[in-house]
Design goal:
The protein is of the alpha+beta class. It has helices at 2-41, 49-59, 67-165, 183-192, 203-217; strands at residues 167-169, 172-181, 196-197, 223-229, 238-239, 267-271, 277-280, 286-293. The protein folds into two domains: 2-104, no CATH class; 166-293, Roll (Mannose-Binding Protein A, Chain A), CATH 3.10.100.10. It is 60% helix and 14% strand. Strands 1, 2, 3, 4, 5, 6, 7 and 8 form an eight-stranded mixed sheet that branches. Helix 1 (2-41) crosses helix 2 (49-59) and helix 2 packs across helix 3 (67-165). The longest helix is centred in the middle third of the chain and has 99 residues, at 67-165. 17% of the residues are buried. Bound molecules: calcium ion (CA). Residues 230, 234, 259, 261-263, 265-266, 279 line the site of calcium ion.
């Protein structure tokens, strides 16, 4: 709005500068008319001699105005009529400029009103956005709480399922999952259930797990992932909780002695018929065993 006001002021100054010279010329043109009136009253002495010479023959026919004088009157009359026709044109121009300035002023007023209205609506919108943000924060807190409760419930369901459907050994329960997964996929699946990939830590747990798997798949034989690998360092076998494996149950026979895969096979599986351990390619898709705390 400040720029618009400055623009209006500049336009006004320009308009006045245009109008004042015109009015000045008007006055200069109107002077002879006054002088003509003054000639009759004898006050024409203050006027220039040239004008006196032009006006005297008109008002003093007695001064012996001949044919030449009459011709001068005829030639001078159109010159004096010019100001009387130019003045209305100047007035019309000024009136037009003033009317346009009035229109501009009205437009600026309307813009001011629109700007105020926009400010009010922006303030209302800011209030609404603040309210929505507060509601979103509440919804987010509720969602986090719901997610936490859901995870706790899922872990509890996994624990109950593992111990009801699986095999309990000491303070843990093993549960066979008949889904084909890679080693990493099996790890995630057990975690999503609230458990871990099976980690038989001693002979008691190993024998209980082997008996459970043999009975589950009898008379078949299926390999199952355990939570043991040497992915971090070759021949350094660790459980998935990072603890080192101290008890092993590798298959040992004249046909095959495990582990034999070197750096190609770094994840450990259990064969369901005899419970022996085999090293396998970690990307191989196999069934797996989860364990849950009781
Ligand atoms: Ca290996």
């Amino acid at each position: 709005m400040g720029k618009a006001a400055v623009l209006v002021i500049i336009v006004c100054i320009l308009a006045l500068s245009v109008c004042q010279p015109e009015t000045g010329s008007l006055e200069s043109h109107s002077e002879p008319a006054v002088d003509k009136a003054a000639i009759g009253t004898g006050k024409e002495r203050s006027q220039p001699e040239s004008q006196d010479q032009e006006t005297e023959p008109l008002n003093s026919p007695e001064n012996g105005g001949g044919g030449e004088e009459g011709e001068m009157v005829d030639t001078e009359q159109p010159r004096e009529s010019e100001p009387t026709t130019a003045a209305p044109e100047v007035d019309d121009t000024c009136s037009y400029i003033l009317s346009r300035l009035t229109d501009v002023d009205s437009a600026i007023h309307r813009l001011n009103v629109a700007h105020y209205t926009l400010d009010v609506k922006m303030a209302q919108m800011a209030d609404r956005v603040t309210g929505i943000a507060a509601r979103l924060e509440e919804v987010w807190d509720t969602l986090e709480l719901t997610t936490r409760i859901s995870q706790d419930s899922r872990k509890e369901i996994g624990r109950l399922e593992g111990c009801l459907k699986g095999r309990r050994v000491g303070y843990k329960c093993f549960l066979i999952i008949r889904l084909y997964e890679s080693y990493a996929g099996a790890l995630k699946n057990c975690q999503d259930r609230g458990g871990r990939l099976a980690m038989p830590r001693d002979r008691k747990e190993q024998e209980a797990l082997a008996e459970y798997c043999r009975g589950f798949f009898h008379p078949g034989n299926w390999p199952l992932w355990l939570g043991i690998s040497d992915q971090r360092s070759e021949d350094l076998y660790l459980f998935e909780d990072g603890t080192r494996v101290t008890f092993f149950y590798w298959r040992k026979s004249y046909l095959s002695s495990q582990p034999d895969g070197g750096r190609r096979e770094n994840c450990v599986g259990l064969s369901s018929d005899d419970g022996d351990w085999w090293d396998n390619d970690c990307e191989r898709l196999m069934y797996f065993v989860c364990e849950f705390d009781t």
